[in-house]
Amino acid sequence: MSTESTTAMERLTLSDAVAEAQFSQRVPIQSVLGRPDKGAGLAGQRIRIGGWVKTGREAEKGRFAFLEVNDGSCPGNLQVIVKSELYKLSEVVATGTCIHVQGLLKSPPEGVKQSIELEVENVLHVGFVDAVKYPLPKTKLTLELLRDFVHLRPRTNTISAVARIRNALAYATHTFFQKHGFLYVHTPIITTSDCEGAGEMFQVTTLLSDAEKLERDLKRNPPSKSGLEDAELSVKEKGEAVAKLKSDKASKQEIAAAVSQLAKAKGDYSNLVERLKLAERVENTGSISKKDGKIDYTEDFFARQAFLTVSGQLQVETYACGLSSVYTFGPTFRAEHSHTSRHLAEFWMVEPEIAFADIQDDMNCAEEYVRFLCQWLLDHCYDDMEFMTKYIDKTAIQRLETVAKSKFHRLTYTEAVAILEEASKVRKFENKVEWGIDLASEHERYLAEEKFKGPVIVYNYPKAIKAFYMKLNDDKKTVAAMDILVPKVGELVGGSQREEDYEVLKQRILEMGLGTEPYEWYLDLRRYGTVKHSGFGLGFERMILFATGIENIRDVIPFPRYPGRADL
């Protein structure tokens, strides 16, 4: 534990009362069990708690029941004793039952593992569970099975621990960047730019729903040429009526009423003409508007193609080029049909961007940030990390400690390939090693886990395998890009110095076959007051995988999205 957090805990005395949560009618169980004495000093105090029953059993021939209750505030359960005269015990012992109770904290008998227990004096609420139907029994369930119950899995030990670790890492992220003077910028989820240039993007469009509405409308109320003739005749009659009233010098009110009827008739006629054109188009080319044989996106909601973002980097650069040090932290999306344990369709990225910074500054910031995250978990989430070490990965805490204390090894891509080529003489890699390849996960993990046995930063990658915006090095073959590789997951961070030269950046865009029109605004940052700047992206779920040792990325995000699944 850190000195700061330990000191705060030590300030508690055995006589301290435990307070209820400010906005909830309960004392968080963490406030009881998280004390240095595990709550023993609170014996004799009356409190209210609420939570869900992990396990329950009746004892003494049904005179009372022992419940293990957890409210999500910590991994530990509080033992709660309910007497039969207070409540029907069969309705509170089932796993998953929600209880809200008031009672007296008591010291348990000697020789038991609990330091404190709650003897219930008043049952305030019971959320009943039918044990036969409840899909999460107290027996251990696989993480894969729990994905079928994504709405209930937060009640399980592992997923609740992941949630607290995820929360701690998010808090640590904001703490780190705010501490270092960065501004938090909200970048758009809907974008018209492809940051990666890979084209694996989810399209955002209303054309399909508009087309369905159009087809339903035309089917329900089909336009006809006879109706058009009637509408045309109505316009003619209304026009003649207006002309007659004017020639008869009728009152202004009468003329105005007739003109209004004429305008309505003209509107009805125009609408009918438009509907006939739409019906003809639907019959000939389909309900989606096309131009020159291609979908006409000028008819779409944004009047152009739009997508869910794969990165907030390009947009946050606009703020870095005016506010200097900024970061964004939000969801990103990739329509990649991958079913591996390392891929999601929706995932979160932390992306800082720093003006007046080169690749060395970028690597320094990324290294310090990763170390900060690891130390934060050790200082503020140690009980959850102990759970992970006990049940998921026995090396989890050791891995955090190693990274938190390490000076990251740095080597160029060329040096990394040379090491891998030498290693391939005595071991077999599935992916061939040669200069110019994009390092595979097995290569990254070999460097971090076997060669250096710690975090590694590889930099100066071949330009052919990196994005268009990365700074071209003097050798014209490599770019100032860097990746942080860590044990367990391989690549954790990817970043680069950005190309600030207008002509070089424009040429790189053209070389990638992207076309300059969508990136004119990005080129403007180089046209007007260009500045050396750098940034990186940390895959948030990958950081959680690294910290916890959990194998599948679908188990470290609350609502996983992947091919074939988007529950809730």
How does this structure look, described?
- This protein has about 575 residues and is of the alpha+beta class.
- About 40% of the residues lie in helices and about 20% in strands.
- The protein has helices spanning about 5-10, 30-35, 145, 155-180, 205-220, 225-245, 250-285, 315-325, 360-380, 380-390, 395-405, 415-425, 440-450, 500-510, 520-525, 540-550, and strands spanning about 45-60, 65-70, 80-85, 100-105, 115-125, 185, 190, 205, 290, 295, 305-310, 325-335, 345-355, 410, 455-460, 480-485, 490-495, 535-540.
- The strands form 4 sheets. It has an 8-stranded mixed β-sheet.
What coarse outline follows from CA principal-axis ratios?
Answer: flat
Rg computed from alpha carbons, rounded to a whole number of angstroms = 32 Å
Kindly report the spatial arrangement of strands forming the biggest sheet. Answer: 6-12-13-18-17-16-15-14
Terminus-to-terminus distance: 38 Å
Annotation field: number of helices: 16
Mean pLDDT: 91
Helix content: 25-40%
* Structural classification: alpha+beta
Please give the number of β-strands: 18
Largest sheet entry: 8 strands, mixed
Uncertain residue segments = 1-10
Strand content: 15-25%
Task: Give a concise summary.
The protein is α+β, with helices and mostly antiparallel strands and 568 residues long. The chain is built from 16 helices and 18 strands.
Question: What secondary-structure arrangement, pairings included, does this model have?
Answer:
Layout: H1 3-10, H2 29-33, E1 46-59, E2 64-70, E3 78-83, E4 98-106, E5 117-127, H3 143-146, H4 157-179, E6 183-184, E7 190-191, E8 203-204, H5 207-220, H6 225-247, H7 252-285, E9 290-291, E10 294-295, E11 306-308, H8 313-323, E12 325-333, E13 346-355, H9 359-380, H10 382-391, H11 396-405, E14 409-412, H12 413-423, H13 441-451, E15 456-462, E16 478-486, E17 490-497, H14 502-511, H15 520-527, E18 533-539, H16 540-548
Parallel strand pairs: 3-5, 6-12, 14-15
Antiparallel strand pairs: 1-2, 1-4, 2-3, 4-5, 7-11, 8-11, 9-10, 12-13, 13-18, 15-16, 16-17, 17-18
Helix pairs in contact: 4-9, 4-10, 4-16, 6-7, 9-11
